[in-house]
Amino acid sequence: GFKGVVSGRITDDEYAEDTDKVASALVSNRWEAGDGEFGALFNVSLIDDYFQQSNTFTAETLPTDRTPSGETVGIPLSVGIVSDKGLRERAQANMSLQWRPNDELELYFDSLYSGLDHQQHTIFGIGFIDGNDLTNVTLNSNPELCTDIGQAEPVCYVASGTANGTQFLAGTHAITSNVDISQSAAGFKWDLSDDTKLKSELVYTDTDRQYENFIQDWHYYGINLNFVSNVNNHTNFDVVGGGTTDPDNFVSGGLFQPWDDSVGSELAWTLDVEHELNAGAFTRLQSGIRFADREGEFRAGDMAAFDGAGLTGDTFGDNYLVPVDMGGATYLDLPGFVAADYEYMLDNKADIRRVYGISEDRPEADPLRNFDAQEESLAAYVQAHYENQLFGYDIDGMLGVRAMNLDRTMSSFGEQDGVRTEFVDDTSTTEVLPNASLNMYFNDQTILRSSVSKTISLPAFSDLNPNLFTFPPAPGTPVGSGSGGNPDLDPIESISYDLSLEYYMEDGGIASVALFYRDVKGYISIFSQEEVIDGQRYNISRPFSSGDGTLEGAEIAYTKFFTELPKPFDGLGVQLNYTFIDGEVNLPDGQGGEFTTELAQVAENNGNAVLIYETGDLFARVAYNYRGDYIESFTTPGIQEPNTSNVRSAGRVDASIGYNITDNFTVTVDGTNLNDEKFYNYWGHPERSRDRRDPGRTISIGASYQF
Question: For the whole model, what pTM was predicted?
Answer without folding.
Answer: 0.88
